[in-house]
Amino acid sequence: MSSRSALPPFDPADPLGLDDLLAPEDLAIRDTVRTWAGDRVLPHIADWYERGELPGVRELARELGDLGALGMSLTGYGCAGASAVQYGLACLELEAADSGIRSLVSVQGSLAMYAIWRFGSEEQKQRWLPGMAAGEIIGCFGLTEPDHGSDPAAMRTHAKRDGTDWVLTGRKMWITNGSVAGVAVVWAQTDEDGGGIRGFVVPTDTPGFAAPEIKHKWSLRASVTSELVLDEVRLPADAVLPEVTGLRGPLSCLSHARYGIVWGAMGAARASFEAALEYAKTREQFGRPIGGFQLTQAKLADMAVELHKGILLAHHLGRRLDAGRLRPEQVSFGKLNNVREAIEICRTSRTILGANGISLEYPVMRHATNLESVLTYEGTVEMHQLVLGKALTGLDAFR
């Protein structure tokens, strides 16, 4: 048995020694993204959040493209070809800055680019992916509708044939990047060859396409969120994604994006925990730091346990994805657990900060309100519970 003196010191920032699971290139990517977020986002994010806008989003997208963060785990067409774990580490660091920044990257790479990369024609890939990987073209993903969120099969957006063209009509709602996008991947019902849901690659300068921005949000305020309005948008025959029909297309994209959320939520949790830990060591009440009281230490210990369990879970799922063995039910497992625990960590952190916890001088309340959106987008808690319930019992309780 090795002697105790041979043990490495305990690291409060990495109490389980999870960095030992990472290769040097993993750490380099993580640290590069962390440095970028610290330089370009953190000095400004409180102001952006308070103003309810994300100024310079196109410049930020180009910088993220230079980092290789857009379509990061995709191969070819200017994409970085990083591992799933490396992409997850990037998501964690981006969301540690703000959920809105991670959402920009997630929608660009895991939804819009992934849809084209996996289901598009070679011509579509060559036309769009290099510019999107570079951040020169921003993409959005139109699935959710005003009346149909958790039930995308009931979508009303419709595409009909007119000669060799397609004509799209409908509305999409809560679309990240919508009003700044140069291309939209839009899912619509069709009636050709027995019908089915199809995906369409829509240049946003096409007549009939509009993307009014959604204002007055109390969550994801430093993020561009829009409605998509399609008023008889005429597209050529080659605008359709040729390699998929039905819900398998959009749902596989969502699964890819949810994987990034599993990591990202832990970034928001980490930032809040670190703020609470530092505050507890410096804030004095009754003549000593509040971190010296048992109740505060109990909160910190419980938060640390859930935070690093969540990171370990994300890492495990990433290894499975890299091995081609990650199932959608396992992604649901990760999103359900990690977002719920991240919100609880933020709320507990707020209690340690007391009244200061509601101030934008600290990141805690901003992360907490952002996570309220992350909790329900790309699958609500209830939907992921039912996914797992069906997998566990073999019985479908969705309807």
UniProtKB/TrEMBL annotation:
GO biological process, one term: fatty-acyl-CoA biosynthetic process
Positions of the Acyl-CoA dehydrogenase/oxidase N-terminal domain: 24-136
GO MF annotation terms: fatty-acyl-CoA binding; flavin adenine dinucleotide binding; glutaryl-CoA dehydrogenase activity
Pfam family, one: Acyl-CoA_dh_M
Acyl-CoA dehydrogenase/oxidase C-terminal domain boundaries: 246-392
Keywords on record: FAD, Flavoprotein, Oxidoreductase, Transit peptide
UniProt family annotation: Belongs to the acyl-CoA dehydrogenase family.
Name the UniProt record assigns to this protein: Acyl-CoA dehydrogenase
Species this protein is from: Streptomyces boluensis
